[in-house]
Write a structure and sequence with these properties.
It is an enzyme of class 2 (transferase). It catalyses: L-valine + 2-oxoglutarate = 3-methyl-2-oxobutanoate + L-glutamate; L-leucine + 2-oxoglutarate = 4-methyl-2-oxopentanoate + L-glutamate; L-isoleucine + 2-oxoglutarate = (S)-3-methyl-2-oxopentanoate + L-glutamate. The chain is α+β, with helices and mostly antiparallel strands. 30% of the residues lie in helices and 28% in strands. The protein is built from eight helices and 15 strands. α6 packs across α8. The model has no long low-confidence stretch (mean pLDDT 98). The structure holds pyridoxal-5'-phosphate. Pyridoxal-5'-phosphate (PLP) binds next to α6 and β13.
């Protein structure tokens, strides 16, 4: 596999990062994951806008323009012959002798690599995913897509131990989001409920696209927190993320959601999203 490291395209075994990199020592970095379908980037502009925002929020600066980043991602897709999969990007503040205080003239580290993966025709779309409820143990700036993912790693570990596929994190009785996805429920009267963007959640790129498409299609969207009880008694539930697009959730903490099968609102959202994703892919 060919990977990108600070302007160079290298075989993966030749790409090395310093043990003093602040991403490694402090988790002082930002990442993005963008889906690839039919060799094209999905929602690329949304991911680049969020990347710029995250980097700005930690007082960093991208070493190259987002146009150059997109060009590099496209080159990796071609060189690695990726038809379907992911492009991972990581920015860190750079490497220097360990010190919480960082030098202002540090050269950032920028890494990109591809992962071939089936995203569209996966069993989860028909079967649905199982969700485990866990406490949200993260910090107060979840709007920044930081590489400090230990709380999410532990949440996934708890979910897996319970035989589940994803963790929904709870704060003060309300779901914030999934460990690596945005959380939605559908009420008995067909309203789509998902938490509004704030520092409490990551502003999902897939979320942004899906909500716009839902509203254009005349579906009712309510952006508000929902409780664990409301989730368990919901008609439908689903999640969105770049690597899953839209997938249904058929059980929460071992209890079936609705009749335990993927519902019509999910199917509508998935169809709307996939059509738009192909239309806007670059
Ligand atoms: N929320 C969290 C905590 C995530 O980690 C992710 C994706 O990794 C999402 C939401 C979904 O965001 P996106 O749709 O941009 O992939």
């Amino acid at each position: 596999r060919i990977v990108y490291l600070n302007g160079a395209f290298l075989p993966e075994h030749e790409a090395h990062i310093s043990i003093f990199d602040r991403g490694f020592l402090f988790g002082d970095g930002i990442y993005e994951v963008t889906a690839v379908l039919e060799g094209k980037l999905i929602d690329s502009a949304l991911h680049m806008a969020r990347l710029e925002r995250s980097v700005r929020e930690i007082g960093g600066h991208l070493p190259v323009s987002t146009d150059e980043i997109v060009a590099a991602e496209k080159r990796l897709i071609v060189e690695n012959n990726i038809q379907e999969g992911l492009v991972y990007l990581q920015y860190t503040r750079g490497a220097e002798d360990r010190n919480f205080f960082y030098s202002d003239d540090l050269e950032p580290t920028l890494v990109m690599f591809t992962q071939a993966k089936t995203l569209e025709h996966v069993a989860a779309v028909e079967k649905g995913l199982k969700v485990k409820i866990v406490p949200d143990q993260r910090w107060e700036r979840r709007d920044i897509k930081s590489v400090c993912l230990l709380p999410q790693v532990l949440a996934k570990r708890t979910a897996k131990a319970a035989g589940c596929d994803e963790a929904w994190m709870v704060e003060d009785g309300f779901i914030t989001e999934g460990a690596s996805s945005t959380a939605y429920i559908v009420t008995a009267d067909g309203r789509i409920v998902t938490r509004g963007n704030s520092n409490a959640i990551l502003p999902g790129c897939t979320r942004l696209a899906v909500l716009q498409l839902a509203e254009e299609a005349g579906l009712v969207v309510e952006e508000r927190p929902f409780s664990v009880e409301e989730a368990i008694s919901a008609q439908e539930a689903c999640l969105t993320s770049a690597s899953n697009f839209v997938v249904p959730i058929t059980s929460i903490d071992g209890k079936p959601v609705g009749d335990g099968t993927p519902g019509p609102i999910f199917k509508r959202l998935r169809a709307l999203y996939m059509e738009n994703a192909r239309k806007t892919a670059i």
